[in-house]
Structures are given as C-alpha cells and as structure tokens.
Specification:
Elements (H helix, E strand, L loop, with lengths): L5 H34 L6 H14 L6 E3 L1 H12 L1 E4 L2 E6 L2 E7 L4 H5 L6 E5 L2 E2 L7 H8 L6 E7 L7 E6 L1 E4 L3 E8 L2 E6 L6 H13 L5 E5 L8 H9 L7 E7 L2 E7 L11 E5 L6 H11 L4 E4 L7 E7 L5 E10 L14 H5 L1 H7 L16 E3 L6 E3 L8 E2 L9 H8 L2 H20 L3 H7 L4 H13 L7 H23 L2 H8 L4 H10 L2 H9 L2
Parallel strand pairs: 11-12, 12-15, 15-16, 16-21
Antiparallel strand pairs: 1-18, 2-9, 3-4, 4-5, 5-6, 5-7, 7-8, 10-11, 13-14, 13-18, 17-18, 19-20
Helix pairs in contact: 7-8, 12-15, 15-16
Length: 529
C-alpha cells in the first residue's frame, strides 16, 4: 500500500477525529432517546420529542435556521414557487357568510363566470353559511390537487335560484408584483412584495409594457419586501448593472466564496433609479438595494432596512420534514455584511424593530449611530455607506407617527372600514361600474361622502369604538377616505389601481418622485460624499 504524504496524513487524521466526534454525539443523543423510551415514568410522543430537540438545537445557532414539519413544507413553498392549486378566488367571511371578493385572473373560477360579490353557501353538499366558518376551513375545502372537482352553490344578487358551479381545480398564480404604472413624467413605479420564482417574468413583462410610454426613470418599491430567492435578487440587480460588476458574494466556514457578477443582459443599465426601502425590507431586498447603492447606480430612499445577511439552504429529512440551515453570509459589492447582531438571543433579535422605534431610529436619522469600523465607500463616487445591520438609505424619510389617530387605529384593528367597503361595493357594484367605466374617471371624480363617513362611525360605535371628540373624527376622515377609495379601486379593478390611489398620499414616494424627476438634484445626491 502506498504511504500517505504528510499533508494527506494530517487530513486523514482530521477527518477521522471529526467522524469520531460526530459518532460520539450521535450515540449520546440516541442513548438519551433510548433511556426515555425504556425507563421514563410516562409514555412519550417520540417524534414530537425529536422535533422539539431539533427546534431547540437550531435556536442556539442563529435566528434564521429553522425546522419545518412535513405538513408545513408544501405551504411554505407556495409563495416563492409562484402558484398553488385550487379554485382561484380571494374571499372574505362577512356576517358568517363566505363572499367572493375577487376572482384571480386566469383561474378556473373566473373562467366559469363566478363574480366578485357572489356568496358561496354550499361546498360539496356541506352548508357553509351561518355555521361559524373559519378562513382555514375555507382554504381546506377549496384548495386541492389540479384536476380534482369541487361543486359550489352560490347566491347572487338579482338571481332567484341558487347557482351551481362545478369547478375543476387548477394551478393558481401568486403574483409578486403588486403595481406597475407611470407615476410622473418619464418615470415608472414598480412595487414588488417578494422575490419568487416568477418575479423576473413579472418584472420584465411590466417593464416591456411600460416602455411603450417611453419612460426612462424607475422607482423600485421594496418596502415591506421580506426577501425570497437569492438568485432572483441577483437577476433583478443584474437588470441595472453593467456587465462584469459584482452584485453580491456569499461565504461561510464550510462554503467557499461564491461570486455573482452582472451579465450583459440587463435591460435597465441607463436611466435614473431610486429604490424605496424601510425596516421591513430584508434579505433579497437588501442585496438589490446594496448593489445599486454600492455601484452608485441609483439612490436608496426611506429608512434603514431589516438587516438579514444570512443565506439558508434547505435540507430534507427522512420523514418529509426539512431544515433551512444557515450556510453562509452574503456581502454587498463594497464588502458590507448586512446581518445585524443576534448574539443576545432570539427574543432580543425579534424585538429589534421595537427597540429601534423606542430609540428614535425610525423617526430621526440622528438617532442612528455607526462606529467607524462599519464605514465603507461606494465603488464609483466614493460616498460613505455603512454595514453591520441593514442598508442605511441615502435619503432618510422618518416614520410619520402622527398620521393615524387612535380612533383610526382602533377601527383598523377590528376591520371596520374594510368590512364596510366589502358590503358597500356588494350593494353598489352595478351603479359604480356604470358611473365609473374606467379607473381614470373613478380616480378623478369619486369622493367619499358624508353618508359613508357616518355609516362607518355608526359601525364603530356599535363595537364601542368612539372618537374622543369631534376633532379626532374630523382628523380621521382623510385616512378613512384614502383607504375606502383604495379598497374600492382594488375591488373594481386590481391591486395596481389600489396602489395608484394609496400612493397619492405617500410622503416617501413624493420625495422620490421629486428627486428622480430633477436630474440636477438626483446627481447632486449621487455625488455627495
């Protein structure tokens, strides 16, 4: 047998030691389970005991390494895979009745002629009206494998008889793009809610459609976007960066450095860009905003992002369950690690946003402090940027804590305004469709009138929610009006129109529009040190 060289000998010894340590710890764990099974005073649920042990083990590592049970695996993957299988409706349970709020475009319910406002009273011979139905029960009854059948009976206004529909379940798309429209002269607005498998197809389709208007500048809204697939984030950043420029790199103790560089396929490497972020923008959102900021490709506006810079890899376990294990950290092109500190445990980590609010970091940029060790320079203009816990925007926009009255917040928690709008549009759908044949007519002419305010006030009063005085009620009207009109627009058209109304009062967006449409102001921000 050939003798081992000295380096190979050391490698062999190290691997042997690792294997012995691993075997010893595995044997220790198995021994403990055996003792419990043989000697413990009561009967125990061994599968649950093992699950609990795995969960506790992962909690000792970091906040984002998690165990996912077999039953949860499929549901977890739906939002990122971009579809699920079912009948294709958005619904609401109002007055113990299942009402269709909207059919999903291209879904089986829309194709059969099921409409918003329809009330589903029977599903596969089971009465579902007036029986205390829960959202989870509806999902269980209506979702199912593609090709399977479900029969529903519907009450529709103007129809004397129950309407029977036999629905063949199909794949239902989950969209990650909420809105895409021209917001100002030569400026488009696109809002993404996640980074999913379908995101780039949605994004490119929206850009191609908007290009017919000749837009040149883009506001990309990633506020509240908690992330998703790393590859999708890379592809989106690639749209804005020149070929060969680093987008992000990942590295871990057991994972060698992996570099993601922009290709020559980007369709938006010219034109002014602004990315909107806030404390809910995380992970993939931070990859995109960090790359654009580091290369001085655009401006980041809003508030400091969440601070998630850990990469998880899924590993299947023997019973169909899964662990998502942190295997690396990701770094922006300037070398910043965005992951915030988690050494003080999960509870402290989870309370970070609350602590930031209490410290004034969401309302005052001067309350945010970075040590010199976390200072970095952008790669073109050499502007100062910061690492160590989220992307700090180039233009800080404070959280407006005065915008909602206590009265408005109390009504929101009870869903009073939303429930009112659902019932209002159900009663006035035909009238509204005739009066406002298109969104522009609606947006310019619809006004929330006194009777609508009073109807909501009466509903709130019935729930023992009252303004402290008439002044508070008057101060609440503007936010009530905005939400009512936004929800009506969504139900009459789609989420695009919802955001077109809602964004009209968005101060962060107003600042973004002001800067991006002023070439000099935009360049001054990009060139500032």
């Amino acid at each position: 047998m050939k003798a081992l060289t000295l380096p190979l000998l050391f490698l062999s010894l190290n691997l042997s030691l690792i294997a012995q340590t691993y075997d010893a710890q595995s044997a220790k764990f198995s021994r403990m389970l055996g003792l419990i099974d043989t000697y413990y005073v009561d009967t125990v649920d061994k599968p649950k005991l093992v699950e609990d042990a795995i969960v506790a083990m992962l909690q000792k590592l970091d906040p984002h390494s998690v165990y996912i049970s077999k039953d949860e695996v499929a549901a977890m993957n739906e939002p990122l895979q971009g579809n699920f299988e079912g009948v294709g409706i958005q619904f609401n349970i109002t007055n113990d009745t299942l009402m269709v709020v909207q059919t999903i475009a291209g879904g089986p319910s829309e194709k059969l002629g099921i409409r918003a406002g329809d009330r589903i009273v029977i599903i596969d011979k089971d009465t579902v009206a007036g029986v205390g139905l829960q959202n989870s029960q509806v999902v269980k009854k209506l979702r199912g494998a593609k090709g399977t059948k479900v029969t529903v009976f519907i009450v529709r206004q103007g129809e004397k008889q129950l309407l029977e529909f036999e629905i063949i379940r199909d794949k239902i798309p989950i969209y990650s793009l909420d809105a895409a429209y021209i917001i100002a002269d030569q400026t488009a607005y696109i809002k993404l809610n996640r980074f999913a498998a379908t995101t780039m197809d949605e994004f490119r389709k929206a850009v191609d459609s908007l290009k017919r208007t000749g837009f040149e500048n883009l506001i990309l809204d990633l506020r509240g976007n908690g992330g998703g697939y790393l590859n999708t984030a890379f592809e989106l950043a690639d749209e804005f960066l020149e070929s060969g420029r680093l987008v992000v790199y990942t590295e871990g103790v057991h994972q060698s450095k992996k570099v993601y560089e922009a290709s020559s396929s980007g369709n938006f490497d010219k034109g002014r860009v602004i990315v909107l972020v806030d404390e809910g923008s995380a992970s993939a959102s931070e990859i995109v905003s960090g790359a654009i900021q580091d290369w001085d490709r655009g401006l980041v506006i809003g508030r400091k992002t969440f601070g998630k810079g850990l990469v998880q890899q899924p590993f299947n376990l023997t019973d169909g369950s899964m662990v998502r294990l942190t295997v690396a950290r990701y770094y922006t092109p300037s070398g910043r690690c965005i992951q915030k500190n988690y050494e003080d445990g999960l509870e402290d980590y989870a309370a970070d946003i609350v602590k930031r609010y209490n410290n004034g970091e969401l309302t005052n940029a001067d309350s945010i402090h970075f040590p010199d060790s976390l200072k970095y320079k952008t790669l073109v203009n050499k502007r100062t940027v910061y690492g160590g816990g989220g992307i700090m925007p180039d233009v800080f926009v404070p959280l407006d804590t005065t915008i909602y009255t206590d009265y408005y917040k109390a009504m929101s928690r009870k869903g009073i305004i939303y429930q009112y709008v659902v019932e209002y549009i159900d009663a006035h759908r035909t009238e509204l469709s005739q009066k406002y044949p298109d969104f522009n007519t609606f947006n310019q002419n619809f006004v929330v009138d006194t009777s609508m305010y009073q109807a909501i006030k009466n509903r709130a009063e019935a729930k023992k929610i009252n303004p402290k005085d008439e002044a508070e009620f008057e101060n609440t009207k503007s936010e009530m009006s905005l939400l009512i009109k936004s929800l009506l627009a969504r139900d009459l058209w789609n989420t695009n129109e919802f955001y077109m109304v809602l964004n009209s009062a968005d101060e962060t967006l107003k600042q973004a529009v002001q800067i991006v449409t002023d070439k000099k102001a935009y360049q001054n921000r990009l060139n500032s040190k």
